[in-house]
Design goal:
This protein is α/β, with parallel strands linked by helices. It has one domain: L-arginine/glycine Amidinotransferase, Chain A (5-stranded Propeller), CATH 3.75.10. It has helices at 30-46, 95-101, 136-148, 223-231, 242-245, and strands at 6-10, 50-54, 70-73, 76-79, 105-107, 119-122, 125-130, 152-157, 171-175, 178-181, 195-198, 210-212, 215-219, 235-239, 256-257. The strands form 5 sheets. Strands 2-1-15 form a 3-stranded mixed beta sheet, with helices on one face. The N and C termini lie close together (10 Å). The structure holds citrulline. The site of citrulline has 19 residues, from loops.
């Protein structure tokens, strides 16, 4: 998507290494995570975004993954209800910030759960993943808010895919009808009218990339996908994400763009 002017970010807290993860890559090093986060913020700024920086939240080790706490659209915002109990409290500090920028702010309510990482905006259409974090109540509540703003949506069940935490761990919309997908999602009927860029299994972590104002932020260390994007004419910015990958997070998770 193009046309973003701002991004909400939150530095990793001192408790970062105590967050949730299913990844067996060892413990993250806080100092490195802070450096990588700063480089990420610098990249967002170089794409023309003004940063809204939230205070680190030591009570919530996963709070640097701000994307999971809200869905932002040009027509309104929705505060989520994260599916992991340890992350439920993260939304409290997001709400007042959203009210500063959005005239209409809705919330996902119990029994709904929804993580922002399961929501992939593709122009006027939104793909909503049903996952271990996002349930059908949460997805349907979001679909109704989106519908009231004139957007369409479809639900994508990813519960059978053990290699991705969220839908956007395996899917990214780059604009112009281009969808980046992992192998396990490439044959889904819902994506059949898009031009697919399919990742090799070895490079699947790179699926979580971020298209911002004509640039594409991608994780460093995945040469095939970088080359393919370069050949398609995308201007890429590669960022070292090693410490966030250890905590099951990717590029999109670290910000809320609007
Ligand atoms: C979690 O398991 O909730 C965090 N450690 C990682 C969240 C990543 N967020 C995202 O993909 N949107």
């Amino acid at each position: 998507m193009t046309g973003f002017t701002k991004a909400i970010v939150r530095r990793p807290a001192a408790s970062f290494a105590s967050g949730l993860t299913r990844i067996d890559l060892g413990a993250p090093v806080l100092e490195r995570a802070l450096e990588q986060h700063e480089a990420y913020c610098h990249a967002l700024a170089s794409c023309g975004l003004k940063l809204v920086r939230l205070e680190p939240d030591d009570q919530h080790p996963d709070s640097t993954f701000v994307e999971d706490t809200a869905i932002l659209t040009p027509r309104g915002a929705v505060v989520t209800r994260p599916g992991a109990p340890s992350r439920l409290g993260e939304t409290e500090s997001i709400k007042p910030v959203l009210h500063d920028y959005f005239p209409e702010v809705h919330s996902i309510l119990e029994p709904g759960t929804l993580d922002g990482g399961d929501v992939c905006e593709a122009g006027e259409h939104f793909f909503i993943g049903i996952s271990d974090r996002t349930n059908e109540h949460g997805a349907n509540q979001l679909a109704r808010f989106l519908d009231s703003w004139g957007y369409s949506s479809s639900l994508i069940d990813i519960r059978g895919l053990s290699n991705i935490l969220h839908l956007k761990s395996g899917l990214a919309y780059l604009g112009g009808g281009h969808l980046m997908v992992i192998q396990a999602l490439r044959r889904r009927e819902e994506f059949s009218r898009y031009d697919l860029i399919c990742l090799t299994e070895a490079e699947e972590y790179a699926a979580n990339c971020l298209s911002i104002n004509g640039r594409v932020l991608i994780a460093a260390g995945f040469p095939k996908v970088k080359e393919e994007l370069d050949q398609l004419g995308y201007k890429t910015i590669a960022l070292n994400m090693s410490e966030f990958q250890k905590m099951d997070g990717g590029l999109s998770c670290l910000s809320l763009r609007f």
